[in-house]
Specification:
alpha+beta, Phosphoenolpyruvate Carboxykinase, domain 1, Phosphoenolpyruvate Carboxykinase, domain 3, seven-stranded mixed beta sheet, manganese
Length: about 400
């Protein structure tokens, strides 16, 4: 049903990109910034499910993070989403790539009903550069975002709430319902990259990365919202990416084509790189914008602290300690960090936590799979590892 409907709506909705998408978001031809309220303050980890079906089910790290759902329940959710889209006035489809390395990149498709969500994935993922890439595009994975749809039968289905973020690995599709948070699409593909790449011997990492003038690369592992973007900023180094990366035989590569920086209390004096990057074609999520001046108010958090943009980076002062390979594996598997406001649904204050590999919520496979790969990379390349404490301010 869904594919048939999309085929009849190809014209005008496929990879519309900028400047058309921002104009459709704000409804004005001279707008520079597209802004939307997602309605949710972060990922709904408790509403994330994976279909328990072979052969993928034999590889999944089942538990509180990767909750199982039957193929029958998923099919019901999918049909509910398809029916909703069957009566939609407009549908936006983005075809692009996850992974800057051509040898391992994946073709991804996003189907959305809202222009700002289409613009979000257009900014966040790697865009096709030629018409030939678009023609005959067959995605490796599709995410259908039906944010306006809620699951009234969630109790009958054995789910946790009306919200659902459900993955069917065998059918190469995921459906999202009940949450307007743009990051669900971004992290959904990240979860899939964390499934695909390690099975091919490529390390998938929740980290930021930059490169020096002599080709030396630095990786910064942290949880969402705790400073990966800030730590990777350096005026003398090239930013590879701020959140999701792979480590293969060819080197370090970004999964994405954009950054997803927090903008709460943002100002030009303290974080000029991020502030100056908010210009034409940038997208602000959960950010108040003055109706007349079109100026964003980064200090207004009356609805949520989950204010973000596709942006660059800033810097902070930190201290570090060199680690042995054994110590590195201990800290990597422990993932001691903090959950902060605006990074997860229901989190309003900083909370100490342990998150395996500094990204446990996005790991379909057992954490030791990633740790083994990381240890192999460290030993092969004689990589130095440091424990960084960024809670220190500059000396006075």
């Amino acid at each position: 049903m869904l594919s048939t409907f999309l085929q009849s709506h190809v014209a005008g909705v496929w990879n519309i990109g900028a400047p058309a998408a921002p104009k459709q978001v704000v409804g004005e031809t001279d707008a520079n910034i597209a802004s939307g309220f997602s309605g949710f303050h972060g990922p709904s980890h408790k509403d994330k499910y994976i279909v328990d079906q072979a052969p993928s089910s034999q590889k999944i790290w089942w538990g509180d993070i990767n909750q199982s759902v039957s193929a029958e329940v998923f099919d019901e959710l999918y049909e509910t989403v398809a029916t909703h889209y069957g009566s939609a006035d407009k549908v936006y489809v983005f075809d692009g790539y996850a992974g800057a390395n051509p040898a391992s990149r994946k073709k991804v498709r996003f189907i959305t009903e809202l222009a700002w969500q289409h613009h979000f994935v257009t900014n966040m993922f790697l865009r096709p550069q030629t018409k030939e890439e678009i023609e005959g595009f067959e995605p490796d994975f599709t995410i259908v975002n039906a944010c306006k749809v809620t699951n009234k039968d969630y109790k009958k289905h054995g789910l946790n709430s009306e919200v659902f973020v459900a993955f069917n690995i065998e059918k190469d599709v995921a459906v999202i319902g009940g949450t307007w948070y743009g990051g669900e699409m971004k992290k959904g593909i990240f979860s899939m990259m964390n499934y695909w790449l390690p099975l091919d011997g490529i390390m998938a990492m929740h980290c930021s990365a930059n490169k020096g003038k002599h080709g030396d690369t630095a990786l910064f592992f942290r949880l969402s919202g705790t400073g990966k973007t800030s730590l990777s900023a350096d005026p003398h180094r090239f930013l590879i990416g701020d959140d999701e990366h792979g480590w293969g035989d060819e080197g370090i590569f970004n999964f994405e084509g954009g950054c997803y920086a927090k903008t709460i209390n943002l100002c030009a004096e303290n974080e000029s790189d991020i502030y100056n990057a908010i210009k034409r074609d940038a997208l602000l999520e959960n950010t108040f914008v003055d109706a007349e001046s079109k100026e964003p108010d980064f200090y207004n958090t009356s609805k949520t602290a989950a204010c973000r943009t596709r942006s660059t980076t800033s810097r902070t002062t930190s201290r570090r300690r060199a680690l042995s390979d054994g110590q590195a594996m201990y800290h990597f598997l422990s993932g001691y960090a903090a959950k902060v406001a605006g990074t997860e649904r229901g989190v309003t204050e900083p909370t100490a936590t342990f998150s395996a590999c500094f990204g446990g919520a996005f790991l379909p496979l057992h954490p030791t799979k990633y740790a083994d790969l990381l240890q192999q990379k460290l030993q092969k390349h004689s990589t130095s590892v440091y424990l960084v404490n960024s809670s220190f301010g500059p000396k006075v």
